[in-house]
Amino acid sequence: MPLLAGQRLKAGQLDRLRPRRYSAVGTSTVAGPLTNGDIPGCTITLTTETANAEYHIIGVFDIRATLGSAGTATGRAAIDGAMQSPLATFNAPDASGRNTVAQQWTGTIPTAGSHTIKLVATLTNSTQEAVGVNSSVVVIIQEVV
What we know:
Elements: H1 11-17, E1 20-25, E2 30-31, E3 34-48, E4 53-65, E5 71-79, E6 82-83, E7 88-92, E8 98-109, E9 113-123, E10 128-130, E11 136-142
Antiparallel strand pairs: 1-11, 2-10, 3-9, 4-8, 4-10, 4-11, 5-6, 5-7, 5-9
């Protein structure tokens, strides 16, 4: 709803103008094979007061290979179980390959209420691991007045 000239603002409206920041750091390592599996600890549950709240998610994934030619692993954000694009990607051409890859997502959450945002990983085989303690997620929510 727009602010009108001469309108008296309520405290709740002003409070919603302030962006809300949330963060979480992973708690443990998860091994493949795995398809869109949760990275332990990289989950945030939050509540929006209005529909169409804007979000900005930054996800950092620490992925390592324990053997050579481990293939491609991917990371993404999930909002209320819906996978978001684009992907964070990792490829290990040789043994002990490791990389910390980041990705970001922006958009709107169509409904008010409780929402769960988490980082998930797809690890193509048993030689890949997502190192949770070096993975993290930051979420910024901006609500409309």
